[in-house]
Design brief:
The chain is mainly α. The protein has one domain. Helix content is 69%, strand content 0%. It is built from three helices and no strands. The longest helix is centred in the middle third of the chain and has 38 residues. The protein is rod-shaped.
Length: 101
């Protein structure tokens, strides 16, 4: 049966994506600070870094929402049906009634 808790690989993936997005946004901010008429190319680099950071944050949020949806589906699947119950153990009287003895 599938476990409800997310795997370590998924948790690490979310954290690395979020850290990478923060690094991209920080790099974009640093490039934007140095942008001038002479260094106009840094404006393009900053815009690309901001776009990449924003896309990574959106992808991270999407991955977390998918994990929550998976947990809800597992909860719905686990709640289906009736709880398991055991049958009574056949005794000598039951076996005689069924013609087995």
């Amino acid at each position: 049966m599938l476990g409800k808790e997310p795997r370590l690989r998924t948790i690490v993936s979310v954290n690395i994506r979020f850290a990478y997005a923060c690094v991209l946004l920080l790099y974009g901010w640093a490039c934007w600070q140095w942008t001038s008429k002479e260094w106009w190319g840094l404006g393009l680099v900053a815009a690309l870094a901001f776009a990449g950071g924003a896309i990574q944050i959106i992808a991270t949020i999407h991955q977390v929402v998918a994990m929550i949806g998976r947990d809800r589906k597992l909860d719905d699947f686990a709640s289906q049906g009736t709880p398991a119950r055991g049958d009574h153990l056949a005794n000598e009287h039951d076996l005689k009634d069924k013609g087995m003895i």
